[in-house]
Every structure is written in structure tokens, then in C-alpha cells.
Amino acid sequence: MSCAPDSVPKKTESPPAKRRKTDEIPSSSHNSRAVGEMAQNGSVLRDSGDIDEGLYSRQLYVLGHDAMRRMASSDVLICGMRGLGVEIAKNIILSGVKSVTVYDTGVCELADLSSQFFLSEASLGKNRASACLSSLVELNTYVTVSAYDGPLTEEYLARFQVVVLTDTALEEQLRISAFTHAKNISLIVADTRGLFGQIFCDFGESFRVVDTNGEQPVSTMIASISKDKEAVVTCLEETRHGFEDGDYVAFTEVQGMTEINSSAPMKVKVLGPYTFSVGDTTSFGDYVRGGVATQVKMPKDLKFKPLKEALEVPEFLISDFSKMDRPPQLHLGFQALQMFQQKHGHLPGPWNKADAAELLTLAKERNGTTTTKLNELDEKLLSTLSYVSAGSLSPMQAVIGGIAAQELMKACSGKFMPIQQWFYFDALECLPHGGEVSEADAKAMINTRYGSQAMVFGAEVQKKLGSQKYFLVGAGAIGCEHLKNFAMMGLGAGDGNIYITDMDIIERSNLNRQFLFRPWNVGKLKSRTAAAAVKAMNPKVRIVAHENRVGPETESIYNDDFFEALDGVTNALDNVDARIYMDRRCVYYRKPLLESGTLGTKGNVQVVIPHLTESYSSSQDPPEKSIPICTLKNFPNAIEHTLQWARDEFEGVFKQNADNAMQYLKDPRFMEKTMKLPGNQPLEVLESVKQVLVDERPQSFADCIAWARLRFQDQYNNQIRQLLFNFPKDQVTSSGAPFWSGPKRCPHHLEFDPKDPLHMDYIVAAANLRAAMYGLQGSTNLEEITNVLASVKVPKFEPRSGIRIAVTEAEAQMEQAATDTDRLSTIQQDLPSPATLGSQVKLCPLDFEKDDDTNFHMDFIVAASNLRAANYDIPPADRHRSKLIAGKIIPAIATTTALVSGLVCLELYKLVQGHNKLELYKNGFVNLALPFFGFSEPIPAPKQKYYDHEFTLWDRFEVKGEMKLKEFLEYFKEKHGLEITMLSQGVCMLYSFFMASNKRKERLEQLMSEVVRNVSQKPIEPHVKALVFELCCNDDQGEDVEVPYVRYLLPPR
Length: 1053
Description:
By secondary structure, this protein is an alpha/beta fold. The chain folds into 5 domains: about 250 residues, NAD(P)-binding Rossmann-like Domain (Rossmann fold, 3-Layer(aba) Sandwich), CATH 3.40.50; about 80 residues, Elongation Factor Tu (Ef-tu), domain 3; about 200 residues, NAD(P)-binding Rossmann-like Domain (Rossmann fold, 3-Layer(aba) Sandwich); about 210 residues, Orthogonal Bundle (Arc Repressor Mutant, subunit A), CATH 1.10.10; about 110 residues, Ubiquitin-activating enzyme E1, UFD domain (Structural Genomics Hypothetical 15.5 Kd Protein In mrcA-pckA Intergenic Region, Chain A, Roll). Helix content is about 40%, strand content about 15%. The protein contains 34 helices and 34 strands. The strands form 6 sheets. A 9-stranded mixed beta sheet has the order 1-4-3-2-5-6-7-18-17, sandwiched between helices. An 8-stranded mixed beta sheet has the order 21-20-19-22-23-24-25-26, with helices on both faces. The longest helix has 28 residues. The chain is globular. It catalyses: ATP + ubiquitin + [E1 ubiquitin-activating enzyme]-L-cysteine = AMP + diphosphate + S-ubiquitinyl-[E1 ubiquitin-activating enzyme]-L-cysteine.
């Protein structure tokens, strides 16, 4: 959840208007319907052959253009439209394949409503595929979606590149598998049975994976390459190379040993963190200097077994390393379920002991005939499989459906490593205390929409779910998935409630993964739209939508009364600050918190439980590595450096400078505040104000063009020439080494050429941004702009002696700290007074917006960065990659979001039931690209101690006010044996042992609330029931001790 823009970006047009298309998949005499919209043959490709980056931008950063194009030519068949089938269909339609056909011959039953979110009570008795078709069509106007309920003949199956089977009998699976394997059609079999899930993949005899992990290729700068049969490459300045054994690298910019630059990719053998070998270089020249080694992604060919063979000789992908013995057991158990269903025409009854005993007999029978016999069957596990197999849970469908849809995308695109070949997953920790439910309780709600869920947990758990009051923070991608799962689970659908807040509005780029939103919702509030969408899925769900940011400014809304009434909080946020804030609120109010996040194919889940676990804030990722100032200003060596430089240029020139000028005009104390800034900042600020208001203020668009031309000259010509004047190309260091070597790339200046498209891109973008900043009318008329450029007089530049250029980070910091007092005084005198300028100046600081292609923001960033890259011979970046880096975009894909939400909601089942054993909960990390699944027990809350009192972050002192400060100090001395040496509230120091005696004496006689008001100089808001104090204390031996914080209860006001 991020800050909502003030208005809807200009470019929010929807894909082409709806039109019916019935000739995409030829019809037969059976019921076959095709509904959808498409730009080109029902694919994500527009008529021009380009991918709609406005819609698919976040997914493109996960998959790339090539993989998306391969997906755009893929026709997919998904069989079975119960909960799992519709989850897979939803995810794959959002992803942008060419067409999806949904197949089902069954009719909608009440039990389907537990997890099939596109069916309703109005669908009962209708064909499942037909009933949910219109909802599926709305998900993506570029994908042809059709429904079919005829026979799955070989002729019909041959039309598809991928076939997915859910809710399909084993006999039918084997028949279809034999055909698809022979015809090189990819097959995925997926099923859920209560708290158990299964996936099988067969992508044929020869399947090529073009990129096994999706990570950006690693590169490293080189210090030396030996001339050997097994040449050793050493990295520059103790920089870790990041390669692994078996990687391949290509070399560029190597001097001396130039032959290696044109060699085929060479295989890496890691020798250490800073060295690796690459094979024979004895026939090459001697290495002199320089060079970059860059990882090359090599394709990998895989062979899959058909289903019949894989059943007998299975390969398993482990889903949970604490359950490594389960996949073979479940492999047998799922086959036994198929046998039971074939024999009786239905699955075992919920928590029916006779059916479970029969399933065990069938499992033993199958174990006796298989080629990979198990020595011992886990009878308890297989009995539980029988007990819950008739159940259908939305979170389980989300988990298995997210994984299966990603496998489907791998089959279409060749991107990422597929599952080989069996995957089993269970979440038995979700079962009620004792691990069992009575058969009567399991069947008590069989005639309700929650019947399939109650079959697993029983009616009592369903009642608890309905009474929950939960706060969902964020209605973006994860938030939409959570809401869907909450609605299907019946969370808050009794006498409970779901509260959701998000202040964002819906943008077009959201539609690819925030599946509750449609093109006609663009510009509307996310929270209200999402709430209305899930109410349509389950009219009984009680939901209240807010549009508030969570933070100190909304604590009058989300106050003590609000939090104390909650059962828990679920975060669906996209920034760390808001996560930390909500985590602290949950710790204070002692409420469980479900935390999660995604990054492309990676996802994580953390459960925070009062008095049991650490909190989200207890451990954090290390901060991002910042780029040194001197590297940005003078010595870039990677496109990331030039893009950050361009982004800084945008923020400084079009945002910060205008902000400073506006403050100068409006704030009478601006000069006073500015002069208090440290180092050289006062001079920099006042210089920028003078430039904006006086020296460089344009009167027309022609002035903006002239400004852009002179800026080009200064940035890409004059400054580079000055740099080379200070440090010529042949400069050597004090040790005799070339100055321009290693990470320092020797630049060259650019001469402006109006015929060069990149040069003109810069001029057009910079001039239009300048015009927008001053409220002037811009233009993209190249003829007009070129004519103005021809008349611009560019001053002659000669490099000067005595100009200092920082070479090291320390020098750059010193440069920032120094100040020119004479120059500062002159500017103060030269600046016209705000009253003199009056209303002459219209200024509009520009807030960077990466997703609006009409505002010139990204045009400027791309051009400015690539021109600087040209200065330093750095390979340029296209607009797509530039937007990712400069816009700090988080890659996202619907499959990971669905999976992560499913995992969160499995933890929610445990919280609702009050599970109080740490080992029952699971923190999770997944990477669908590899694929990898890692689950672990949450970290317990660390214990601390003062005297004999143990405490954790969940503990505190509860003190009932009102009392004077001296009474407060005495209370802790007498009751707890603690001498308070310092006392603070927020950022305010209320008391300390080193405080001036007159001030201390005065405060000791004041009430605690009075001290807070006086020191903070703010009133205590009416909604505040308690104050939080932090203590520094000594024990009776005079030693510092860690103690909990204090919750000081105020008397009623």
C-alpha cells in the first residue's frame, strides 16, 4: 500500500472494447463457447506485435519479453472447474497466454461454494465451466477464454500446448498422459484433498529450460587472468564474484589477452570467493589490464517420464524438509484414494473410520503391486488423508493452484525449472487440537456453503471463523487474494467483521495481478472496490472498507477501542516502514500478526504470535548498498550508476529546486532555516533558488529548449572535459598504476548532434519537464524544437586549473562539508525579496511518476542515463529495464501472490483455533522459479531478565495514573527495586539523572501527563488512553539493566 496520486494518470485507457469471438477454437456438436477479447489472435501481443507493457509491466520484470511472447502463442486446456481448477485458470488468464479453455461436465453443487469463488448460489445446477466463464473472461481482455463440455478426444486434445487435469479419475489421467507425452504436449495433474495437495508434471521427452532461475546474470570486474591450461581469474579489489561451479561466463573489455573477449562462454570452476578458473588460455596473449566477466545463461534440456512410468518410479520435490518421509506415503495414499473413488463413486466420508480402514487396505494392496514398495506405511497419516479428503479449502486451492499455474507458465515459456516430477504438500498442523474431529461435527454443516470446509475442521471451527474481527491492511495484489480467501473461509461472516484499509486508487498496471479489479475500476479506490467484489463472492461476509493510511496520523481512528476489539491483523503492505509500524501496534495491543511479501517468484510468510514468537521488527534485512558519491558524480562503471545519477538529476532539477524556490516565496522563516543547514547545503539551496527564480526562469517554451541544450552541453561535454583535464587519459597514480583502470572507466565528451535520436530525446524531455515545472505549454514538434536549437548560442568552454574533483568517498564528503561564505553572502544579497517577485512566478514541483508514459519523466531518465553511459562506454539500458531500476519497481506475478496468500490463510486457521504450540506454526520462504520450498518454526521471542524476572518484547509494566513524576520514580524504586536513570516518551526526554537541577526539581512535582505535554509541547489527544514510557534503570547494585517498557494508564477524561 503506497501513497495514492492526486489524480488518475492520463494513460489509463483499457484494452480494446469487448467483442465476441467464436472462431478461435472450432466448435463441435457439443457445447463449446468461446468468449473473449484480444488485440491479436487472442494474445497479449498488440497488432504491432508488442507486449502491452502498461498492463504487464510488473510481470515482464519476472518473465522477460521472450518468455511472454512464447506464452502469448500458447493454447491451454484446464479440466475441472471446482476450487482448484478456477484458481489455476484465474492465475494463467492473468498471466497472458493466447487462450484458455475450461472444461467440466459436472454441475455446480453447494459444496463447490467453499472454494470456487466465481460460482454463487445462482449457479447451482448449472455447468461449472459455463457458470464461471463470464467472470474468467473479465480477468484479461487479451486472452480468449472458452468453455467446453464435450468429449476429450485425441483430436481435441491436439489443439493445445498444455493440458491441466484437476478432479480427474486416474484411468482418464493415464489415457490422456499417453497421448500428450507421445505428441509432446505438456501435462500437469493437480489435486487437493482437504489439507493435502498433489502436483505431477510431464513436459515430454525433451524439454528445454532457457533460464533455470530467472536471476539477473552476475558480472564482476577483473584484476588478472593467468595464462594457464586452467586459467585463474582474480576479481578486482577483493570483490566477491558470486559465480557457482558449472556457471558459464563471457569476457569483455579485457586488454592484452584480447582473444578471450571473442571466446565462446567458458565454464567456471570456483576456487574461492574472489577467484575462479575458466579453462585453457595458453594460446592467448598476455593479460594487461581491465575486463568484465559476465555470467551467460545456458539452456538445460530435461527428460520427463509419462504418468504411467512415473507412478511406478517416482521422483519427488520436497515441500517441507521436516516431512521428508511423507511424499512416498502420500504418493501411495493418493493412488489409494483413486482406487476408493473408482470402487464407490465417491471419496471417503469425512472423519469416517470405516472408510479410513478401507483406504488403508487399498494402500497396502497398492504397495504390494508397485515396483517401489514401502517397508512400512504411516497408518495415521493415511487415515488422516482419508478423513479430510472430501474437504475443499480455499487456502489449499490457492497454494496448489499458485504452484500449478507457475508450472503451466514454465511449460509455455521454458522459463524457470519445472517440478520433476511429483510434488506433495500437507498442512496437518491446521487440524483442531488433538488432530481429530467427530464425524457428526464434520457433517453438521454439510448443507451450507461452508460444508466442504467444515468436513475438515468441524462446525465449531467454522463458527469461530465467522465470529472473527480481523484488520487487513492493504488491498493490492496480496490483499485481493487474502480477501478472496477470507470470503471463501467465512471469516467474519457470522457476528464478526473484516476491516480493510488502503488509500490507493486502482491503476491499469494493477489489473495483471490484483484480480478483484477490472478495467472499468481504474481510478476508483482499491479498498471499496475490493470489498464490493468479495461481497459478490460471498454475500454473507461482513466487511468495512476504509481509505486511510496506517500511521501516527490515523491513531485517532485505529485507536485503543479499535485494536482491542480485534482478533488479529493481516498485513498486505508494500513498504517496510508501514510493516514496522503495524508490527509495533500489534506488539503493543498483543494481537497476532500475519505478515507476508513477494518479489517476483519469491515469497515469504511470517506469523507473529503474542507471547510466543519474535515480532517482524525483531530481525530485518540489511540495508541496500548505496552507491558512493564519487562513483555517481565522476566514476560510474555500470548502468545502475548512470540511472541513479539520472534519477538524482530529475529529483534535484525538477522537484527539489522548485520546492526550495516555493518555500522561499511562501515561508518567512525560509532563510533562517536554510542558514542552519550543515556544511555546504545553505549555498547549494540558495544557488538553486536563485537559478529557478532569477537566472534561468523561462518566459516561453523556446527558453526551455535553450535551457535543455545548455544543460546537455554542461553535463555531457563541459564536465567530462574538465574531468579529463584534471585526470588525463594517461594519468598514473603515485604507485605508477594507470589512474583510469579497474572500476574507473575513462570517459569521453559528447558533441551535440540534432540528428542523433538520443540527443533529441533528451532535449524534448528536458524542455517539456522544464515547461511543466513553470506552467508553460510544451511541445513535441521536432521541427519547431530543431529550429530553436539552431539559434541557441552555446558558450565556449575551456577547462580550468584549480578545480577540485573528489576521487574518494572521503574527499566527496569533505567537499560537501566545505562552504564558501563569501559566495553565500553574495547570493543572499542578490536574491530578490519574495514580495518583489509576487505572483510573477508559477511553479509546480514534479513528483516522479514512472507509470505515466505521457509525462516525459521516464523519457528524461532513459535519455539522461544513456547519454551518461555513452560518456563512459557503458552499455545502455532500454526503457523497460531503466524503469525497473530507476523506479525501484518490485517485480510481481499472480502465481506467487496466490501461493503466499494461501500459506498465510493456513496459518490463520491455526490462530483462529488458538493453537499455542510454537511447533505447529510455519514461517515460509518459497521460490517458484527453482522451485524451492522452505518452512521453519517461528523464532521464539527472545527472553531477557532483571533480577529473577524473565520478560520478552510482549511484556510491560502496567502503571495506573495519575501520579507525579517523583511518585512514578518512587513507585519503581519501592515496587520493583529499580532506580530510573532516564525516562523518555517517543523522542522526548522527560527525565534524566544528568538533567539541570532546577529543571529536574520543577518536573518532579508535575503530573506525568503534564510533563509529557510540557516537554513535547503538544496536547494529549482525547483518544489516547495510555502513554508509553521507555526506561533506563539501575538495579540495587548500581548496574544497568534492561527492563520492559511502561504502559501508563491515564484516568478517564
